[in-house]
Amino acid sequence: MHSGKTDRRSRRTQQLIADACVGLMLEKRYDDITVQDILDRADVGRSTFYAHFTDKENLLLSQIERMIHDLGDYAAHRGELEYGRLPSLELFRHVKEQRRLMQALVWGQGADLLNRSLLQQISQLIETNLRSMIAEKTDTPTPLSVVGQFVANTFLMLLRWWFDEDMRHTPEEMNEMYQRLVLPALRDLIT
């Protein structure tokens, strides 16, 4: 039972530190944030920080990994992949719900890390789905890895645009844009 309390306490501490980092990233450039800034905001000691993270980059990467994991879980529970598509409406809704974290990551120094990680995971997901759908068709006019990257890049481009537009559009409107962009390419591939 003691380890359960320790685990909960550890998770709360990690979340406190992560929230402090995200809050600071909304206020200033990631490069200008020091570990001491994070410690002060989270009101934790240096040894506590280093018990959980090796440095601020490790903290940022852990937040990006958590966000990607959360997006994947959310999508898996809310919608099925079909025709090589992402459950994009559910993903747009989740992004809107997690706006603060996403805004810090998309606009902050973590944007490059986030984009690379998301691009890789989304494109692999789409490629895997396409392979299972067209298993009998061994030759496709466009390599499935290219299609996966196209669909993933389109999704990420729309996410960045949505943030640049201060999320004035609803998740449903964003999903409509996404579908209009990717469906014609996927239909050509699958038929």
Characterization of this structure:
The protein has about 190 residues and is mainly alpha-helical. About 75% of the residues lie in helices and about 0% in strands. It contains 9 helices and no strands. α1 packs across α2, α4 packs across α5 and α4 runs parallel beside α7. The longest helix has 26 residues.
What average pLDDT do the residues reach?
79
Main sheet summary: none
Low-confidence stretches: 80-84
Order of helices and strands: HHHHHHHHH
Outline, from the CA principal axes?
elongated
Distance between the termini: 56 Å
Number of separate helices: 9
What's the count of strands? 0
Share in helix? over 70%
Radius of gyration: 19 Å
Give the helices and strands, then pairings.
Layout: H1 2-27, H2 35-42, H3 46-52, H4 56-78, H5 88-97, H6 99-107, H7 111-133, H8 144-164, H9 171-190
Helix pairs in contact: 1-2, 1-6, 4-5, 4-7, 5-9, 7-8, 8-9
Descriptive keywords:
single chain; mainly alpha; 9 helices; 77% helix; 0% strand
Short description:
The chain has 191 residues and is mainly α. The protein has helices at residues 2-27, 35-42, 46-52, 56-78, 88-97, 99-107, 111-133, 144-164, 171-190. Mean pLDDT is 79; it is low at 80-84.
